[in-house]
Amino acid sequence: PIGGKLARLDIEAARRAIAERIGAPLGLAPEDAAEAILKVANARMAGAIRLVSIERGHDPAKFAAMPFGGGGALHTGALIREVGLGSAIVPRYPGVTSALGCVVADMRLDRVQTVNRLLGELDPGALGREMQAVAETLAAELDRAGVDFVGKDRLFEFDMLYLGQTHTVRVPVEIGAGGLSAAAIREAFEAAYREAYGRLLEGIPMRVMNYRVAAIGRRPAFDMGLLAPRDGRPAADCRTATRQVYCNGQWLEAGVYDRLALAAGERIDGPALMEQPDATCFVDPGLSARVDRFGNLIIERSQG
Predict the structure, then answer these.
(1) Reduced to 3 states, what is the DSSP secondary structure of residue 113?
(2) Angle between the 124-144 and 182-197 helix axes, to the nearest 10 degrees?
Protein backbone atom coordinates (compact mmCIF):
# COMPACT_ATOMS: atom_id res chain seq x y z
CA PRO A 1 0.00 0.00 0.00
CA ILE A 2 1.03 3.61 -0.51
CA GLY A 3 3.80 4.44 1.92
CA GLY A 4 2.72 1.64 4.24
CA LYS A 5 -0.07 3.90 5.53
CA LEU A 6 -3.19 2.09 4.30
CA ALA A 7 -3.62 -0.19 7.28
CA ARG A 8 -7.30 -0.61 6.43
CA LEU A 9 -6.43 -2.54 3.26
CA ASP A 10 -7.64 -6.12 3.82
CA ILE A 11 -5.16 -8.28 1.93
CA GLU A 12 -6.93 -11.53 2.76
CA ALA A 13 -10.26 -10.18 1.53
CA ALA A 14 -8.60 -9.10 -1.70
CA ARG A 15 -7.05 -12.56 -2.06
CA ARG A 16 -10.43 -14.26 -1.55
CA ALA A 17 -12.15 -11.98 -4.06
CA ILE A 18 -9.56 -12.69 -6.75
CA ALA A 19 -9.56 -16.42 -5.98
CA GLU A 20 -13.36 -16.73 -6.12
CA ARG A 21 -14.22 -14.31 -8.94
CA ILE A 22 -11.26 -14.78 -11.28
CA GLY A 23 -8.93 -17.56 -10.20
CA ALA A 24 -11.48 -20.35 -9.75
CA PRO A 25 -13.34 -19.79 -13.06
CA LEU A 26 -10.02 -19.73 -14.94
CA GLY A 27 -8.36 -22.53 -12.98
CA LEU A 28 -5.64 -20.21 -11.67
CA ALA A 29 -4.08 -19.84 -8.26
CA PRO A 30 -4.85 -16.47 -6.60
CA GLU A 31 -1.33 -15.16 -7.26
CA ASP A 32 -1.43 -16.16 -10.93
CA ALA A 33 -4.89 -14.61 -11.30
CA ALA A 34 -3.67 -11.37 -9.72
CA GLU A 35 -0.65 -11.30 -12.00
CA ALA A 36 -2.93 -11.93 -14.99
CA ILE A 37 -4.96 -8.85 -14.04
CA LEU A 38 -1.78 -6.79 -14.03
CA LYS A 39 -0.68 -8.23 -17.37
CA VAL A 40 -3.97 -7.22 -18.99
CA ALA A 41 -3.65 -3.68 -17.61
CA ASN A 42 0.00 -3.46 -18.69
CA ALA A 43 -0.86 -4.72 -22.17
CA ARG A 44 -3.48 -2.00 -22.57
CA MET A 45 -1.02 0.69 -21.50
CA ALA A 46 1.69 -0.75 -23.75
CA GLY A 47 -0.72 -0.70 -26.68
CA ALA A 48 -1.48 2.97 -26.08
CA ILE A 49 2.24 3.79 -26.08
CA ARG A 50 2.78 1.85 -29.31
CA LEU A 51 0.10 3.97 -30.99
CA VAL A 52 2.10 7.14 -30.40
CA SER A 53 5.56 5.65 -30.91
CA ILE A 54 6.11 2.58 -33.09
CA GLU A 55 3.06 3.19 -35.27
CA ARG A 56 4.30 6.72 -35.94
CA GLY A 57 7.78 5.56 -36.84
CA HIS A 58 9.48 6.39 -33.53
CA ASP A 59 11.91 4.06 -31.76
CA PRO A 60 10.68 3.55 -28.16
CA ALA A 61 14.25 2.87 -27.03
CA LYS A 62 14.96 6.58 -27.54
CA PHE A 63 12.21 7.60 -25.12
CA ALA A 64 11.54 7.42 -21.39
CA ALA A 65 8.19 6.91 -19.70
CA MET A 66 7.20 9.30 -16.92
CA PRO A 67 4.67 7.54 -14.69
CA PHE A 68 2.80 9.52 -12.08
CA GLY A 69 -0.04 9.05 -9.65
CA GLY A 70 0.01 6.79 -6.64
CA GLY A 71 0.28 3.58 -8.65
CA GLY A 72 1.74 4.60 -12.00
CA ALA A 73 5.29 3.65 -11.05
CA LEU A 74 4.20 0.07 -10.32
CA HIS A 75 3.94 -0.50 -14.08
CA THR A 76 7.24 0.94 -15.31
CA GLY A 77 9.07 -2.37 -15.58
CA ALA A 78 6.34 -3.94 -17.68
CA LEU A 79 6.26 -0.96 -20.04
CA ILE A 80 10.03 -0.97 -20.45
CA ARG A 81 9.93 -4.69 -21.16
CA GLU A 82 6.85 -4.87 -23.41
CA VAL A 83 7.34 -1.70 -25.44
CA GLY A 84 11.13 -1.52 -25.42
CA LEU A 85 11.33 1.88 -23.76
CA GLY A 86 14.81 3.05 -22.90
CA SER A 87 14.01 4.01 -19.32
CA ALA A 88 11.46 5.56 -16.99
CA ILE A 89 11.64 8.78 -14.99
CA VAL A 90 9.63 8.60 -11.77
CA PRO A 91 9.10 12.13 -10.38
CA ARG A 92 10.12 12.92 -6.83
CA TYR A 93 6.47 13.10 -5.75
CA PRO A 94 4.52 11.14 -8.37
CA GLY A 95 1.28 11.14 -6.40
CA VAL A 96 1.01 14.93 -6.53
CA THR A 97 2.63 15.58 -9.91
CA SER A 98 -0.64 16.77 -11.44
CA ALA A 99 -1.23 19.16 -8.55
CA LEU A 100 2.33 20.44 -8.86
CA GLY A 101 1.74 21.03 -12.56
CA CYS A 102 -1.32 23.14 -11.78
CA VAL A 103 0.79 25.30 -9.48
CA VAL A 104 3.77 25.88 -11.79
CA ALA A 105 2.16 25.80 -15.25
CA ASP A 106 1.27 28.94 -17.15
CA MET A 107 -2.34 30.05 -16.75
CA ARG A 108 -4.26 30.05 -20.02
CA LEU A 109 -7.78 31.15 -20.89
CA ASP A 110 -9.29 30.22 -24.26
CA ARG A 111 -12.34 31.35 -26.17
CA VAL A 112 -13.60 29.67 -29.35
CA GLN A 113 -16.31 31.18 -31.55
CA THR A 114 -17.95 29.60 -34.60
CA VAL A 115 -17.76 31.68 -37.80
CA ASN A 116 -18.51 29.21 -40.64
CA ARG A 117 -18.17 31.71 -43.47
CA LEU A 118 -16.23 31.75 -46.71
CA LEU A 119 -13.22 34.02 -46.54
CA GLY A 120 -14.63 36.17 -49.33
CA GLU A 121 -17.82 36.79 -47.32
CA LEU A 122 -16.07 38.02 -44.18
CA ASP A 123 -15.46 41.54 -42.96
CA PRO A 124 -11.86 40.97 -41.76
CA GLY A 125 -11.60 44.34 -40.04
CA ALA A 126 -14.71 43.78 -37.93
CA LEU A 127 -13.66 40.21 -37.17
CA GLY A 128 -10.24 41.37 -36.02
CA ARG A 129 -11.77 43.98 -33.72
CA GLU A 130 -14.09 41.35 -32.26
CA MET A 131 -11.16 39.02 -31.57
CA GLN A 132 -9.19 41.82 -29.92
CA ALA A 133 -12.17 42.63 -27.70
CA VAL A 134 -12.33 38.98 -26.64
CA ALA A 135 -8.60 39.10 -25.87
CA GLU A 136 -9.15 42.14 -23.65
CA THR A 137 -11.88 40.28 -21.75
CA LEU A 138 -9.65 37.25 -21.22
CA ALA A 139 -6.73 39.42 -20.13
CA ALA A 140 -8.97 41.07 -17.53
CA GLU A 141 -9.90 37.62 -16.22
CA LEU A 142 -6.20 36.81 -15.85
CA ASP A 143 -5.71 40.02 -13.88
CA ARG A 144 -8.50 39.00 -11.50
CA ALA A 145 -6.71 35.71 -10.78
CA GLY A 146 -4.32 37.58 -8.51
CA VAL A 147 -1.25 35.72 -9.80
CA ASP A 148 2.11 37.46 -10.17
CA PHE A 149 2.91 36.64 -13.81
CA VAL A 150 6.28 37.38 -15.35
CA GLY A 151 4.67 38.04 -18.73
CA LYS A 152 1.44 37.83 -20.69
CA ASP A 153 0.76 36.72 -24.26
CA ARG A 154 -2.22 36.78 -26.59
CA LEU A 155 -2.77 34.24 -29.34
CA PHE A 156 -5.12 34.56 -32.32
CA GLU A 157 -5.94 31.58 -34.54
CA PHE A 158 -8.46 30.38 -37.09
CA ASP A 159 -9.73 26.88 -37.86
CA MET A 160 -9.83 26.88 -41.67
CA LEU A 161 -10.27 24.51 -44.60
CA TYR A 162 -11.00 24.50 -48.29
CA LEU A 163 -14.63 24.41 -49.37
CA GLY A 164 -15.81 20.79 -49.44
CA GLN A 165 -13.30 19.53 -46.86
CA THR A 166 -14.18 18.25 -43.39
CA HIS A 167 -10.88 18.58 -41.50
CA THR A 168 -9.62 21.98 -40.46
CA VAL A 169 -6.11 23.38 -40.15
CA ARG A 170 -5.10 25.56 -37.20
CA VAL A 171 -3.98 28.92 -38.60
CA PRO A 172 -2.13 31.40 -36.34
CA VAL A 173 -2.47 35.07 -37.27
CA GLU A 174 -1.15 38.40 -36.02
CA ILE A 175 -3.52 41.30 -35.42
CA GLY A 176 -1.42 44.43 -35.44
CA ALA A 177 -2.26 48.11 -35.30
CA GLY A 178 -3.55 47.96 -38.86
CA GLY A 179 -6.08 45.28 -37.99
CA LEU A 180 -6.83 42.10 -39.91
CA SER A 181 -7.06 41.74 -43.69
CA ALA A 182 -8.32 39.03 -46.03
CA ALA A 183 -4.89 38.88 -47.66
CA ALA A 184 -3.20 38.23 -44.29
CA ILE A 185 -5.69 35.46 -43.46
CA ARG A 186 -5.21 33.86 -46.89
CA GLU A 187 -1.43 34.00 -46.61
CA ALA A 188 -1.48 32.48 -43.11
CA PHE A 189 -3.83 29.68 -44.20
CA GLU A 190 -1.72 28.81 -47.21
CA ALA A 191 1.41 28.65 -45.07
CA ALA A 192 -0.28 26.40 -42.50
CA TYR A 193 -1.88 24.18 -45.15
CA ARG A 194 1.36 23.80 -47.09
CA GLU A 195 3.20 22.84 -43.92
CA ALA A 196 0.56 20.23 -43.08
CA TYR A 197 0.00 18.73 -46.54
CA GLY A 198 2.88 19.89 -48.73
CA ARG A 199 0.70 21.52 -51.39
CA LEU A 200 -2.16 23.98 -51.97
CA LEU A 201 -5.51 23.49 -53.74
CA GLU A 202 -5.68 26.25 -56.29
CA GLY A 203 -8.99 27.79 -57.28
CA ILE A 204 -10.98 26.44 -54.32
CA PRO A 205 -12.55 28.95 -51.88
CA MET A 206 -11.38 28.99 -48.27
CA ARG A 207 -13.73 28.70 -45.32
CA VAL A 208 -13.21 30.04 -41.79
CA MET A 209 -14.92 27.67 -39.37
CA ASN A 210 -13.90 29.15 -36.00
CA TYR A 211 -11.71 31.76 -34.46
CA ARG A 212 -9.70 31.11 -31.33
CA VAL A 213 -8.38 33.63 -28.85
CA ALA A 214 -6.11 32.77 -25.92
CA ALA A 215 -4.67 34.88 -23.12
CA ILE A 216 -1.67 33.32 -21.38
CA GLY A 217 -0.13 34.39 -18.09
CA ARG A 218 3.49 33.24 -17.88
CA ARG A 219 4.56 32.03 -14.45
CA PRO A 220 8.20 32.13 -13.33
CA ALA A 221 10.25 29.06 -14.21
CA PHE A 222 10.11 26.50 -11.41
CA ASP A 223 13.46 25.43 -9.99
CA MET A 224 13.31 21.63 -9.89
CA GLY A 225 16.36 21.73 -7.65
CA LEU A 226 14.03 22.66 -4.80
CA LEU A 227 12.82 19.04 -4.83
CA ALA A 228 16.34 17.60 -4.64
CA PRO A 229 17.16 15.29 -1.72
CA ARG A 230 18.44 17.03 1.40
CA ASP A 231 20.68 15.11 3.80
CA GLY A 232 20.14 11.93 1.79
CA ARG A 233 21.47 8.62 3.06
CA PRO A 234 23.09 5.56 1.44
CA ALA A 235 20.74 2.90 0.11
CA ALA A 236 21.72 0.42 2.81
CA ASP A 237 20.59 2.88 5.50
CA CYS A 238 17.24 3.44 3.74
CA ARG A 239 16.26 -0.22 3.59
CA THR A 240 13.38 -0.64 6.01
CA ALA A 241 12.27 -4.24 5.42
CA THR A 242 12.09 -7.15 3.00
CA ARG A 243 8.93 -8.43 1.40
CA GLN A 244 7.93 -11.44 -0.66
CA VAL A 245 6.65 -10.39 -4.09
CA TYR A 246 5.12 -12.58 -6.78
CA CYS A 247 6.70 -11.76 -10.12
CA ASN A 248 6.68 -13.72 -13.38
CA GLY A 249 5.23 -16.81 -11.74
CA GLN A 250 7.58 -17.04 -8.78
CA TRP A 251 8.06 -15.63 -5.30
CA LEU A 252 11.03 -13.31 -4.88
CA GLU A 253 12.45 -11.44 -1.92
CA ALA A 254 12.42 -7.69 -2.49
CA GLY A 255 14.01 -5.00 -0.39
CA VAL A 256 11.71 -2.21 0.82
CA TYR A 257 13.24 1.27 0.82
CA ASP A 258 12.32 4.70 2.13
CA ARG A 259 12.59 6.40 -1.23
CA LEU A 260 12.61 10.03 -0.08
CA ALA A 261 15.54 9.35 2.26
CA LEU A 262 17.84 8.18 -0.57
CA ALA A 263 20.76 10.43 -1.47
CA ALA A 264 21.33 11.58 -5.03
CA GLY A 265 23.41 9.08 -6.97
CA GLU A 266 22.26 6.02 -5.02
CA ARG A 267 21.40 2.97 -7.13
CA ILE A 268 19.21 0.01 -6.17
CA ASP A 269 18.82 -3.19 -8.17
CA GLY A 270 15.45 -4.89 -8.52
CA PRO A 271 13.41 -6.50 -7.28
CA ALA A 272 12.79 -3.64 -4.88
CA LEU A 273 9.89 -1.62 -3.51
CA MET A 274 10.31 2.12 -3.07
CA GLU A 275 7.80 3.53 -0.60
CA GLN A 276 6.78 7.11 0.12
CA PRO A 277 3.61 8.76 1.45
CA ASP A 278 2.10 9.54 -1.97
CA ALA A 279 3.16 6.55 -4.10
CA THR A 280 4.77 3.13 -4.34
CA CYS A 281 7.32 2.23 -7.01
CA PHE A 282 8.29 -1.32 -7.98
CA VAL A 283 11.69 -1.95 -9.53
CA ASP A 284 11.36 -5.17 -11.50
CA PRO A 285 14.03 -7.88 -11.58
CA GLY A 286 16.61 -7.02 -14.21
CA LEU A 287 16.10 -3.29 -13.71
CA SER A 288 17.77 -0.78 -11.44
CA ALA A 289 16.71 2.56 -9.98
CA ARG A 290 19.07 5.52 -9.70
CA VAL A 291 18.36 8.79 -7.87
CA ASP A 292 19.25 11.79 -10.02
CA ARG A 293 20.21 15.25 -8.75
CA PHE A 294 16.57 16.39 -8.72
CA GLY A 295 15.39 13.40 -6.70
CA ASN A 296 13.77 11.63 -9.65
CA LEU A 297 14.16 7.87 -9.92
CA ILE A 298 15.71 6.81 -13.22
CA ILE A 299 14.67 3.22 -13.86
CA GLU A 300 16.61 1.39 -16.55
CA ARG A 301 17.94 -2.02 -17.45
CA SER A 302 20.66 -3.24 -15.11
CA GLN A 303 24.18 -3.18 -16.47
CA GLY A 304 25.79 -6.56 -17.04
Answers:
(1) strand
(2) 80
Q: Which fold, 106-218?
A: Dna Ligase; domain 1 (3.30.1490)
- The predicted model gives 238-264 an average pLDDT of 94
Determine the Cα angle at 68 with ends 37 and 268, to 5°.
85
Rounded-to-integer distance, Cα 236 and Cα 245, Å: 20
pLDDT of residue 3: 54
The rounded distance, in Å, linking the Cα atoms of 62 and 137 is 43
Query: Does the structure show a pLDDT above 70 at 79?
Result: yes
**pTM (2 d.p.):** 0.76
> Which ranges in the chain are annotated with CATH 3.30.1490?
106-218
Q: How far apart are CA 212 and CA 170, in angstroms?
A: 9
Query: Would you say 214 and 154 are in contact if contact means Cβ atoms under 8 Å apart?
Result: yes
Which pLDDT score is estimated for 5? 62
Contacts 24+ apart (CB under 8 A), 169-172: 169/193, 169/196, 170/212
How buried is residue 248: exposed, middle or buried, by Cβ count under 10 Å (0-12/13-18/19+)?
exposed
State the greatest distance between any 2 C-alpha atoms of the chain, in Å, as a whole number.
Answer: 75
